[in-house]
Design goal:
24% strand, alpha+beta, 177 residues, Alpha-Beta Plaits, two-stranded antiparallel ribbon, 6-stranded antiparallel beta sheet, single chain
Length: 177
Amino acid sequence: MGSLSTAFLSIGSNKGDKTANLHLAIACLDTHEQIQVSAVSKFYKTQPQNFSDQDWFVNAAVKICCSTADPLALLTMLKQIESCMDKQGKPFRFGPRKIDLDIIYFDDRVLKTDEIEIPHPRMHERHFVLRPMCDIDPGAIHPVFSMTTEALFRKIEKQKDQVVIPLDEEETGEVFY
């Protein structure tokens, strides 16, 4: 793959067979010619945020290497996978979706455009992002806050409004990379 960038993704689903949707998204990532999956967290059942009148999610974190140094190019690849997997898409912001693929970190880049913001602007407030990220790289440094992912998680882990429950192997059919 030549020179590689490293990105961390948050993936989630709350429609259909949620764990199967995550497995399919991971397979789509890993078979993409410009992406190689290097780590996958445990799967977690998570309470919806922002819009609570919907089914709970299954979330995970994925660490990838990609041959593009352009976060917008990666975003385009992720949107293509989302569109392929879910023709209907989500009905509204924070609404139910078959698959959601978000870039959390992209190397140590800080970027804000109309299309993308890296690191993800709300990741430090979300258990469903930080808990899985701690599974695969608790020492990853947030490039704005200069704190590890684990330290960010410790700051919010006692909040009662964000339930994150690890799924066991039978529920996930886990395949670790």
